[in-house]
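Researcher: We're teaching a course module on how sequence relates to structure. For the next exercise, students receive a sequence and then see the predicted structure as tokens, so they can try to spot secondary structure elements on their own. Here is the exercise chain.
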Amino acid sequence: MRCPIPAVIFACALVSLSCGSDNPVMPGITPTGSPALAVFGIGPVSERFTGEVWVRGNIAYTTTWGNRGAPGNAVKIWDVTGNVPTLVDSLIVPNASTLGDIQTSDDGQLLVVATELSPGSIMIYSLANPAKPVLVSRYTTALTDPGVHTAEVQRVNGILYAFLCIDPRAGSPARLVIVDLSNPAAPTQVFTAAMGTPFVHDVFVRDGILITALWNDGITIWDIGGAGSGTVSNPVALGSLRTFGGEAHNVWWFHNGVTGEKRYAFVGEEGPGAVGSSSSGDIHVVDVSNFASPREVAFFHVNGAGTHNFSVDENRGILYAAYYNAGVRAIDVTGDLSSCDAADKDAFGRCDLARMGRELAHGPVQVGPVYIWGVQLIGLNVFAWPGGVPARLKPAPVQTVWGSGVVQPCHTRTEISK
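Model: And here is the predicted structure for the students to work with:
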């Protein structure tokens, strides 16, 4: 499943939980006993399929994709000051049929939008007025032409870069392209290499370390200025690992905000499924304390569903995982994830976080059937965009959902207060 889901509902939910809550059953999903996430407020999006979301301050940006009578070439701009999001504007991207990732720069000055299919590009906008992005430049080359599936915008040694994961196409393999955004009016390529079998799907950049999700090639850890002689223009491979099951889709390198530990990377596996109704794939926990020899030590599995993107509350030690038709799962990732009782281990010696009772919460369930493919943590707010079901299965129009609350501690093994 390489594409966003049809008939997506965008939900922004700061979830409200109590430890004694019921566990409503999502169709085809085994109940876990964890409390449910609460969702509040509705706002419609009816003419296009919603894709990704990025929130900064009181403004949320959502992309669109595919064709729902109108092409997926619009960025929706929302005011999320209150409980119900208000649509401020729709920004139309010319010569695009599908939009992918959307992200602001760390200083809030730029908005970067990935476009698929051909001509693949990134659109760079000024956010001098966050509610009215103004185009600065469009970066497109022969190498990006197959389509930019994901675009990660990060700063390395003070310089802002975009890390572009390029779709494979007949005659051209998947590849990573890194672009210097120091001059947003004239971005320049500083590195490219073909990688991934068959995809390079996503990256994670932090502390001068680049981790690439390479599908059936697992993950590779690169030094780009944080561990030796590597640079952004000349990455040096430090180590790699093929995670169980392959299909490495996304990565989050966890920096524990309480202990300072940087031991674990969480890798999402995107297995087979039917877009809008079913999915498969686990969260894989990789010990990266030795970059040269990463090893998988734990996993999290939901029967009847698979994971997609992550966001981590690093101060509280909570991993929020989009789990497609199983909603959002909030998982306790504090403490030693490689140590567990024999009964909580699988045949390969990996700790099973679900058996260990690490799931803190799930949902949202109030909006009907869901198919969630992204979450974003902003302060104490968790923004999630559940898909409901494809339009053919849901007579009501696609909607936007907004909620509020806070996750409470429900797991006795939690080492810090949630």
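Model: If you want an answer key for the exercise: Residues 1-25, 387-418 have pLDDT under 50 and may be disordered. The CA atoms of residues 324 and 372 lie 4 Å apart.
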